Protein backbone atom coordinates (compact mmCIF):
# COMPACT_ATOMS: atom_id res chain seq x y z
CA UNK A 1 0.00 0.00 0.00
CA UNK A 2 1.38 3.39 -0.94
CA UNK A 3 1.35 6.35 1.37
CA UNK A 4 -0.09 9.61 0.26
CA UNK A 5 2.10 12.58 0.93
CA UNK A 6 1.07 16.18 1.15
CA UNK A 7 -0.29 17.36 -2.15
CA UNK A 8 -1.62 13.89 -3.00
CA UNK A 9 1.76 12.62 -4.20
CA UNK A 10 2.55 8.96 -3.58
CA UNK A 11 5.84 7.75 -2.17
CA UNK A 12 7.70 5.21 -4.31
CA UNK A 13 7.78 1.93 -2.33
CA UNK A 14 11.07 0.90 -3.99
CA UNK A 15 12.84 3.87 -2.42
CA UNK A 16 11.45 3.01 0.99
CA UNK A 17 12.51 -0.64 0.70
CA UNK A 18 15.99 0.39 -0.45
CA UNK A 19 16.18 2.82 2.50
CA UNK A 20 15.15 0.07 4.93
CA UNK A 21 17.72 -2.39 3.56
CA UNK A 22 20.54 0.17 3.61
CA UNK A 23 19.52 1.28 7.11
CA UNK A 24 19.57 -2.31 8.40
CA UNK A 25 22.97 -2.96 6.80
CA UNK A 26 24.43 0.24 8.25
CA UNK A 27 23.07 -0.45 11.75
CA UNK A 28 24.48 -3.99 11.65
CA UNK A 29 27.89 -2.58 10.69
CA UNK A 30 27.73 0.06 13.44
CA UNK A 31 26.67 -2.57 15.97
CA UNK A 32 29.56 -4.84 15.00
CA UNK A 33 32.01 -1.94 15.10
CA UNK A 34 30.94 -0.47 18.43
CA UNK A 35 29.67 -3.44 20.43
CA UNK A 36 32.29 -6.12 19.82
CA UNK A 37 34.56 -7.01 22.74
CA UNK A 38 38.11 -5.73 22.47
CA UNK A 39 41.13 -7.18 24.21
CA UNK A 40 43.20 -4.25 25.36
CA UNK A 41 45.87 -4.16 28.05
CA UNK A 42 44.68 -0.83 29.44
CA UNK A 43 41.44 1.15 29.25
CA UNK A 44 40.75 4.80 29.85
CA UNK A 45 37.95 5.56 32.28
CA UNK A 46 34.50 6.43 31.00
CA UNK A 47 34.09 10.07 29.95
CA UNK A 48 30.95 11.65 31.36
CA UNK A 49 32.15 15.28 31.01
CA UNK A 50 30.84 16.88 27.80
CA UNK A 51 33.53 18.12 25.36
CA UNK A 52 36.45 16.67 27.37
CA UNK A 53 37.43 14.18 24.67
CA UNK A 54 36.99 16.77 21.93
CA UNK A 55 39.29 19.21 23.81
CA UNK A 56 41.82 16.41 24.29
CA UNK A 57 41.73 15.55 20.58
CA UNK A 58 42.20 19.20 19.64
CA UNK A 59 45.13 19.52 22.06
CA UNK A 60 46.84 16.44 20.53
CA UNK A 61 47.16 18.14 17.17
CA UNK A 62 45.29 18.39 13.88
CA UNK A 63 45.70 14.73 12.91
CA UNK A 64 44.31 13.41 16.20
CA UNK A 65 41.49 15.97 16.04
CA UNK A 66 40.65 14.98 12.47
CA UNK A 67 40.63 11.26 13.31
CA UNK A 68 38.80 11.53 16.64
CA UNK A 69 36.23 14.15 15.73
CA UNK A 70 35.83 12.96 12.14
CA UNK A 71 35.19 9.34 13.14
CA UNK A 72 32.62 10.49 15.70
CA UNK A 73 30.82 12.62 13.11
CA UNK A 74 30.86 9.98 10.38
CA UNK A 75 29.81 6.91 12.38
CA UNK A 76 26.06 7.58 12.37
CA UNK A 77 25.92 10.33 9.70
CA UNK A 78 24.26 8.03 7.11
CA UNK A 79 21.22 7.88 9.42
CA UNK A 80 20.54 11.51 8.47
CA UNK A 81 19.62 10.30 4.99
CA UNK A 82 18.58 6.68 5.56
CA UNK A 83 16.03 7.27 8.33
CA UNK A 84 13.80 9.62 6.26
CA UNK A 85 14.11 7.33 3.22
CA UNK A 86 13.15 4.27 5.26
CA UNK A 87 10.24 6.13 6.87
CA UNK A 88 8.95 7.37 3.51
CA UNK A 89 9.22 11.03 4.55
CA UNK A 90 10.01 12.45 1.12
CA UNK A 91 6.85 14.55 0.87
CA UNK A 92 6.71 15.85 4.44
CA UNK A 93 7.94 19.26 5.65
CA UNK A 94 11.73 19.34 6.00
CA UNK A 95 11.83 20.86 9.47
CA UNK A 96 9.63 18.18 11.06
CA UNK A 97 11.53 15.43 9.25
CA UNK A 98 14.84 16.91 10.42
CA UNK A 99 13.68 17.09 14.04
CA UNK A 100 12.51 13.46 14.01
CA UNK A 101 15.66 12.26 12.28
CA UNK A 102 18.08 14.06 14.60
CA UNK A 103 16.15 12.86 17.65
CA UNK A 104 16.18 9.26 16.38
CA UNK A 105 19.91 9.53 15.66
CA UNK A 106 20.55 10.82 19.18
CA UNK A 107 18.54 7.93 20.64
CA UNK A 108 20.45 5.36 18.56
CA UNK A 109 23.75 6.89 19.71
CA UNK A 110 22.60 6.92 23.33
CA UNK A 111 21.48 3.30 23.03
CA UNK A 112 24.89 2.29 21.68
CA UNK A 113 26.60 4.15 24.55
CA UNK A 114 24.42 2.39 27.10
CA UNK A 115 25.06 -1.01 25.53
CA UNK A 116 28.82 -0.35 25.57
CA UNK A 117 28.78 -0.32 29.37
CA UNK A 118 28.52 -4.11 29.37
CA UNK A 119 31.04 -4.83 26.59
CA UNK A 120 34.63 -5.63 27.61
CA UNK A 121 37.13 -3.22 26.12
CA UNK A 122 34.57 -0.58 25.10
CA UNK A 123 34.46 2.72 26.97
CA UNK A 124 31.44 5.01 27.30
CA UNK A 125 32.10 8.54 26.06
CA UNK A 126 29.45 11.27 26.20
CA UNK A 127 31.31 13.15 23.44
CA UNK A 128 30.70 10.27 21.05
CA UNK A 129 26.96 10.74 21.59
CA UNK A 130 27.31 14.47 20.87
CA UNK A 131 29.46 13.90 17.76
CA UNK A 132 27.23 11.13 16.44
CA UNK A 133 24.17 13.34 16.82
CA UNK A 134 25.96 16.25 15.15
CA UNK A 135 26.91 13.94 12.27
CA UNK A 136 23.28 12.89 11.79
CA UNK A 137 22.19 16.54 11.86
CA UNK A 138 24.84 17.59 9.31
CA UNK A 139 23.88 14.80 6.93
CA UNK A 140 20.20 15.62 7.37
CA UNK A 141 20.64 19.32 6.61
CA UNK A 142 23.35 19.08 3.93
CA UNK A 143 22.65 15.84 2.05
CA UNK A 144 18.98 15.01 2.46
CA UNK A 145 17.40 18.13 0.85
CA UNK A 146 19.23 17.74 -2.51
CA UNK A 147 18.56 13.98 -2.52
CA UNK A 148 14.92 14.63 -1.74
CA UNK A 149 14.65 17.17 -4.59
CA UNK A 150 16.27 14.72 -6.99
CA UNK A 151 13.95 11.85 -5.99
CA UNK A 152 10.85 14.03 -6.06
CA UNK A 153 11.83 15.43 -9.48
CA UNK A 154 12.42 11.92 -10.79
CA UNK A 155 9.02 10.74 -9.51
CA UNK A 156 7.12 13.46 -11.34
CA UNK A 157 5.60 12.45 -14.60
CA UNK A 158 5.73 14.94 -17.44
CA UNK A 159 2.46 16.80 -17.84
CA UNK A 160 0.16 15.49 -20.52
CA UNK A 161 -0.39 17.75 -23.53
CA UNK A 162 -3.52 19.88 -23.34
CA UNK A 163 -6.55 18.39 -25.00
CA UNK A 164 -8.26 20.26 -27.79
CA UNK A 165 -11.62 21.56 -26.72
CA UNK A 166 -14.51 21.15 -29.03
CA UNK A 167 -17.58 23.26 -28.83
CA UNK A 168 -20.69 21.20 -28.46
CA UNK A 169 -23.92 23.13 -29.01
CA UNK A 170 -26.54 22.62 -26.34
CA UNK A 171 -29.38 22.75 -28.84
CA UNK A 172 -29.95 23.80 -32.38
CA UNK A 173 -30.42 27.47 -33.01
CA UNK A 174 -33.96 28.15 -34.14
CA UNK A 175 -35.90 31.14 -35.26
CA UNK A 176 -35.65 32.80 -31.88
CA UNK A 177 -31.83 32.85 -31.79
CA UNK A 178 -29.37 31.10 -29.58
CA UNK A 179 -29.84 30.40 -25.91
CA UNK A 180 -27.58 32.51 -23.68
CA UNK A 181 -24.87 30.40 -22.03
CA UNK A 182 -22.67 30.80 -19.02
CA UNK A 183 -18.95 30.58 -19.65
CA UNK A 184 -17.50 27.14 -19.08
CA UNK A 185 -14.78 26.53 -16.54
CA UNK A 186 -12.44 23.63 -17.21
CA UNK A 187 -11.97 20.99 -14.55
CA UNK A 188 -8.44 20.46 -13.31
CA UNK A 189 -7.01 16.97 -13.80
List the helices and strands and how they pair.
Elements: H1 13-35, H2 52-59, H3 62-75, H4 79-87, H5 94-116, H6 126-142, H7 144-155
Helix pairs in contact: 1-4, 2-3, 3-6, 4-5, 5-6
How would you describe this protein?
With 189 residues, this protein is mainly alpha-helical. It has one domain (10-37, 47-155). Helix content is 56%, strand content 0%. It has 7 helices and no strands. The chain has helices spanning 13-35, 52-59, 62-75, 79-87, 94-116, 126-142, 144-155. The longest helix is centred in the first third of the chain and has 23 residues, at 13-35. It is elongated, with a radius of gyration of 28 Å. It starts with 12 loop residues before the first helix and ends in a 34-residue tail after the last helix. Mean pLDDT is 85; it is low at 1-10. Keywords: Membrane, Transmembrane, Transmembrane helix. It comes from Streptomyces albiaxialis.
Amino acid sequence: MQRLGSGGETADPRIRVAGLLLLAAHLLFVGWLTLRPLSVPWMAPANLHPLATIRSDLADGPRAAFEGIGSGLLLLAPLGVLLPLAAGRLHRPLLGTAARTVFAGAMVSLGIALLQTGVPGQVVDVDSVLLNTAGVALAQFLLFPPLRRWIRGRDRTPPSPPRARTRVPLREEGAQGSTPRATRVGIAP
